[in-house]
TrEMBL record:
Protein origin, superkingdom: Eukaryota
Stretch list, region Disordered: 1-26, 112-137, 210-230
The protein's name in its UniProt record: Uncharacterized protein
Biological source species: Lentinula detonsa
């Protein structure tokens, strides 16, 4: 009997002949070589592009420098020409308030204008003196209020500007500004320092002194220390 060789199972491993294996290796090497060449070309292209950008920037910088140099030259030329014109210009102008009066009417007009100027000057000096006198009176009044620690009373909105400034002065705040600004500053301070609304010196600004509050104000005014300060 002849013994039969076992048949190769289906789906088993396949083997390449040497020629086929060399062909595949060669194809793989060619692909790798082409990829390297492509990468090198890309690198060279990027380098070339960078050089082009650098050259373009240098050209633009040179253009800007040339424009600035041209402008500076124009300015220097203008200044030089202006100085030359000044040296060659022999005419001179003088401004004066003097007048040549040749008629009686002109003399009367000049006298009237001089009187008007003097009146305006006197008016300004009078306003300045009046302002100084008012400031001095305000200073003395506030000094007396601080010495006596006099209490304030009445609605804030009914106060005149000077009265609002007295309150601000007593609180140690800035007294400059119009009435609206002064009111805003006072209310903001009392909203922050709420305890001051119960202080005998300021309690009368927020309500009519009656009952306990009136008694507190009277006790404060009859306090020996308060009387000594008076």
């Amino acid at each position: 009997m002849q013994s039969s060789l076992p048949s190769q199972p289906k789906g088993g491993p396949s083997f390449l002949v040497p020629g086929q294996r060399n062909s595949r290796n060669s194809t793989t090497l060619n692909k790798i070589h082409l990829q390297r060449q492509l990468a090198e070309w890309k690198r060279r292209a990027l380098v070339a592009e960078g050089q082009v950008m650098i050259e373009q920037a240098e050209r633009e910088a040179a253009t800007v420098h040339a424009v600035l140099a041209s402008r500076e030259a124009s300015i220097l030329k203008y200044q030089l020409n202006a100085n030359t014109r000044k040296k060659t210009d022999t005419s001179k102008c003088f401004t004066t308030s003097a007048r040549i009066v040749t008629s009686a009417e002109g003399k009367e007009q000049a006298i009237a204008e001089a009187s008007k100027r003097d009146a305006k000057k006197n008016e300004l000096e009078e306003k300045k003196k009046k302002k100084q006198d008012t400031e001095r009176a305000d200073f003395l009044r506030r000094a007396e209020q601080e010495r006596e620690q006099l209490p304030f009373s009445g609605s804030l909105r009914s106060k005149l500007k000077a009265e609002l400034q007295d309150i601000l002065f007593a609180l140690g705040l800035d007294i400059e500004g119009n009435v609206a600004a002064l009111l805003l500053r006072i209310n903001a301070h009392f909203d922050t320092e709420t305890a001051l609304k119960q202080d005998p010196r300021y309690i009368g600004l927020f309500s009519k002194p009656s009952g306990k509050r009136k008694q507190a104000a009277e006790d404060h005014m009859s306090d020996p220390h308060y009387l000594l300060r008076s």
